Amino acid sequence: MKKKKLNLRDLNKTSSDNHKRNDGHNHSSPESIGKFKIYVPAIFSFVMLIIGIAMDYFDVAFFKDWIRIVWYAVAYLPVGFPVIKEGWNSIKNGDFFTEFLLMSIATIGAFAIGEYPEGVAVMLFYAVGELFQSAAVKRAKRSIKALLDVRPNEALVYRNNNYVSVNPEIVAIGEKVQVRVGEKIPLDGILLSEKGSFNTAALTGESKPDTIAKGEKVFAGSINLDGVIEIETTKEFKDSSIARILDMVQNATARKSKTELFIRKFARIYTPIVVFLAIGLTFLPYFFVDDYVFNDWLYRALIFLVISCPCALVISIPLGYFGGLGAASKNGILFKGASFLDEMTRITTVVMDKTGTVTKGVFKIKEIKTIDWDEPEFMKYLMAMEEQSTHPIAKAIMEYKADGEDFQAKEVTEVAGKGLKGKVNGKTVLVGNKALMTSNNIEVPSETDNIVESIVMVSIDGKFAGYVIIADELKEDAHEAIKQIRESGISKIIMLSGDKDSITQQVAKEMGIDTAKGGLLPEDKLNEVEHLKKQFNTKVAFIGDGINDAPVLAASDVGIAMGGLGSDVAIETADVIIQTDQPSKIARAIKIGRSTRRIVWQNIGLAFGVKAVVLVLGAGGLATMWEAVFADVGVALLAILNAVRLQKMNWK
C-alpha cells in the first residue's frame, strides 16, 4: 500500500517499506529533517502532559471540564494526529489491521471514557518508542551501509595524452588509470607500477596493508597507501568485484530466514484475532457478569489492544538478522541472505577442497636432494631445462635463486607423460619422473618410493644426480581453522580433492581431518556430497575455491567460497564468501550464525512471554495502560537493544 510520511519518524525507504508490510510501523524519516526537529512534537506533548498531570494532582481550580479536555487534546494531537492519519490511509488502502489502527482506537477510547492523561501517555510513549527504534535500526544498518563508502567516485584515465577525471562506470577494459596516494582503486585491474601497498580493510576486514607486485591483480575499493601508481583495467565497473559485492550486500536482506517469514505471516493473523478478542472482551461480559459496567470492560479492551501490538517481534527479529549480516561483513564474511545465517547453525558436516582452500594453491620447492653435486650447480642444470616449460612445477623451480646465465639448454624435447630430455653445456640432461629415468636405464634410489609429493628427478650424463620435491604450501591458519571448526561442534570434517590421493591423504593426516579422498573429478565431488546429504540428520557445508568446485558449492546445503574477491564464480555460486582467503573464518561464520539465531530466539521468548502475562492481567482488570505501554514499546526497545549487541560481539 502507498506509504505516507509521518512527522515523528525517521524513515529510510528500504526499512520502512519492509516493516510497513509487516505491522504498519514507520521507523525513519527524510534526511532533510533535522535531528532536533524530529523530537519537537514528542517534547511538546511531554511538557503538556506533565503540566496537566501536575494540575490534576494539585486540583487547580480552573483546570476542569472543557479546559481540561482541550488541554489534553492539545497535548495529544502532535503525537496522535500522524498516527490517526496513517491509520485512516491504511484503511482506505485495504489494510485494516495495522498498529496505527490499534493505537488510534486505544487512545481515542481512553479519551471517550475520560482517561485523558493515559490516552496522551500511551500515544506519547509509542511515539518516543518509534524514535528510539529508528535510532536502533540506523545503528544496526551502519556497518553494512559503511561498505557503500568504498564505492569509487572517479577515475583518472589516460586519454589523448593526458589524465582526465571520469566516472568509473564509463571506463573501458584495457584503459590505463592513475591512482594517487589515499585514493580508492576505481576498477579491477593489474598493477603497471613496480609495486604498490593497499588498504583492503573495507573489502576483506583485514587492517594490515597488502603489498602487490607489478602484474598482480588489484581490486576496486582498495585504498592506495604508497605513491602514485598506474593500473590497467581488466573489468568494467559493473562487473568489478566491489560492484558485485555491494549489490550482493544491499540485497542480502531480501533472502529472509524461515523464522523471519513465519513471524511476518504470524503478525498478519495475530493482529486481527486480538482486535476481535478486544471487541468480545468489551461486550460479551454483559451476558455473564451481574455488575457489568461498560466503561470498565472497554478500558480492559483498550489495554488489550495496546498490548497486542506485534512490534517487538516484527522489528527486532529482522533487525537481529540484519545485525548478524553486518557483523559478518565487518569480519570479512559475506552472507548472501539471512536464510544462510540460519543454515550455518544447522551444519553437521564440513567438506572442503584442498588446493586453494587449506593450501595456497601455489607450488613451492620443499626439498632439494643431490648426489655428488653441489646444490647451486645442480639447480642450474635443472633450471636451464625447466626454463623451456610453462608447467606450474617448472615455474616453482624457476623461483630458486641462482645465477644460471652461463647454463644454456639445447635440443630440448618433451617425452610424453615423462618429462624433458636435452643438452646443457654439452651434457645430456634428463628431467622428469621415475618412468623417464627407468626408460633410460638410470638407477633411482629406493628412498624416492616413499615420497608422496610431486618429485622432479634429474640425471646428468647417464647418472642420477638428485631430485627436487615440489609441494603446495598449507595456509598459515589451516591448522587453526580445523581446530576451531571442531571446537564449534562440527562432528565430521572431510577433504575432497582433485589432487593425487597420496598427497590428499598426507595433507588430511597432517591437519587431523577425519576422511579424505583424492584424484576426484568435479562430478565425483558432487556425488560424494549428494551421498552425504542423504544421510539422516546431516547438513553439509562445502568449502571450495569457487571455480572447479562450482557444482558442489551449488548442491551443498551451504556453499562457502574462499577468496571471493578474485573469483567471479565464487560470488555467483556460493552462499557465503570468505573474502580474506582464510579458512579460520569458517568457524567464525558458524559462531556468528549461532549468535544471531540465539538473540533472535531470545527476543521471541521475551516478546511472547511478557505480552502473554500482561494480556491475561489486562483481561482480568489487573493491568493498567502503563503496563500495556511496557508490554508494547518497552519490550520492543529491550528486544532491539538485545539485537544491537551483535554489533559489539567478538568471535575471535
What does this structure look like?
By secondary structure, the chain is an alpha+beta fold. Among the domains are: 32-144; 337-357 and 474-578, Rossmann fold; 360-471, Calcium-transporting ATPase, cytoplasmic domain N (3-Layer(aba) Sandwich). It contains 21 helices and 22 strands. A seven-stranded mixed sheet has the order 10-22-21-20-11-18-19, with helices on both faces. Strand 16 (454-460) and strand 17 form a beta hairpin. Helix 2 runs antiparallel to helix 3 (65-92), helix 9 runs antiparallel to helix 20 (585-619) and helix 9 runs parallel beside helix 21 (625-644). It starts with 12 loop residues before the first helix and ends in an 8-residue tail after the last helix. 46% of the residues are buried.
What's the gist of this structure?
The chain has 652 residues and is α+β, with helices and mostly antiparallel strands. It is built from 21 helices and 22 strands.
- Subunit arrangement of the protein: single chain
Q: Report Rg.
A: 34 Å
Write down the CATH class of the domain at 337-357 and 474-578. Answer: Alpha Beta
CATH topology of the domain at 337-357 and 474-578: Rossmann fold
CATH homologous superfamily annotation of the domain at 337-357 and 474-578? HAD superfamily/HAD-like
* Average pLDDT, all residues: 81
Could you give the order of strands across the largest sheet?
10-22-21-20-11-18-19
Assign the structural class, choosing from mainly alpha, mainly beta, alpha/beta, alpha+beta, or little secondary structure: alpha+beta
Number of strands: 22
Give the fraction of residues assigned to helices.
40-55%
- Beta percentage is 15-25%
Q: From the 3D coordinates, which CATH architecture of the domain at 337-357 and 474-578 would you assign?
A: 3-Layer(aba) Sandwich
Spans of at least 5 consecutive residues with low confidence: 1-33
Main location: membrane
Subcellular location: Cell membrane; Membrane
Catalytic activity: Zn(2+)(in) + ATP + H2O = Zn(2+)(out) + ADP + phosphate + H(+)
Organism: Maribacter ulvicola
